[in-house]
Amino acid sequence: MKKLSVLFAAVMMVVSVGMAKAQKIATLDVAAILNAMPEKKKADTELNTFADTKQAEIKKKADAAQAKFQQYQTEAPKKTSEENTAREAEMKKLGEEIQQMQDKAQKDFLAKQTAAYDPIEKKLNAAIEKVAKANSYEYVMDSNSTGILYKAGPDATAAVKKELNIQ
Questions:
Q1: CA distance 28 to 39
Q2: Distance from C-alpha of 71 to C-alpha of 151, rounded to nearest angstrom
Q3: Which long-range contacts (CB under 8 A, 24 or more apart) does 160-166 make?
Q4: Cβ contact 121:130 at 8 Å
Q5: In this structure, are residues 75 and 39 in contact, taking their beta carbons and an 8 Å threshold?
Q6: What is the C-alpha to C-alpha distance for residues 67 and 74, in angstroms, rounded to an integer?
Q7: Are 28 and 140 in contact (CB under 8 A)?
Q8: What 3-state class would DSSP assign to 157?
Q9: pLDDT tens, residue by residue, 88-100
Q10: From start to end residue, where is composition biased (Basic and acidic residues) (predicted)?
Q11: Residue 64 sits in which domain range?
């Protein structure tokens, strides 16, 4: 019985050491790296300038619409109902134009952001993969989140899907 206990302890020790060596994990601060990249700083500056320009255009149009609205409110009692209806339609159209400008500006910003950040993300991911392979890291995790940035070990997704009977 004593030999069995010693054998069990020896097996557990070997398994423990093997498991400890089996996974080499590293963490990194992705936000700090991105904020230190000159390409990211340049992209941020360009995006801020673009957003400020679009916002100024929208504000200019909105201010003009607001001035026209106040003028129409002041003159409304002196105008006919047909003129007031036409002015209301004009104000509605102006409001729709401003909304369309905002929507277009948002779409343009997102497109410009994607175009600016995609190469930066690819460069960062390539660097992470290179460092991970050079240092034999199986996993690299973002220290600011729970996300894994690089993974070299086996993937159990298919086995879990099979167990749950999903495709």
A1: 19
A2: 64
A3: none
A4: no
A5: no
A6: 11
A7: yes
A8: helix
A9: 999 999 999 999 9
A10: 76-90
A11: 22-163
State which amino acid sits at residue 11: V
- Token digits of residue 132: 């991970």
Alpha-carbon distances of 1 from 4, 8, 10, 11, rounded to whole Å? 5, 11, 14, 15
Instruction: Give the whole-angstrom CA distance, residue 119 versus residue 78.
Output: 60
Q: What is the DSSP letter of 27?
A: E
Cα–Cα distance, 117 to 38 (Å, whole number): 12
Spatial separation of the C-alpha atoms in residues 44 and 60, rounded to whole Å = 24
Q: For 29-74, what is each residue's pLDDT tens digit?
A: 888 888 888 899 999 999 999 999 999 999 999 999 999 999 989 9
Does any domain span residue 1? Answer: no
Give me the amino acid identity at 139: Y
Q: Is 32 within the bounds of a domain?
A: yes
Task: Specify whether the CB–CB gap between 138 and 24 falls below 8 A.
Answer: yes
> Which residue is listed with tokens 């609205």?
69
Q: How many domains does the chain have?
A: 1
The two tokens of residue 162 are 């099979």
Residue 142: phi and psi, rounded to 5, are -75, 125
Write down the pTM of the prediction: 0.69
Residue 150 and residue 133: Cα distance in Å, rounded? 10
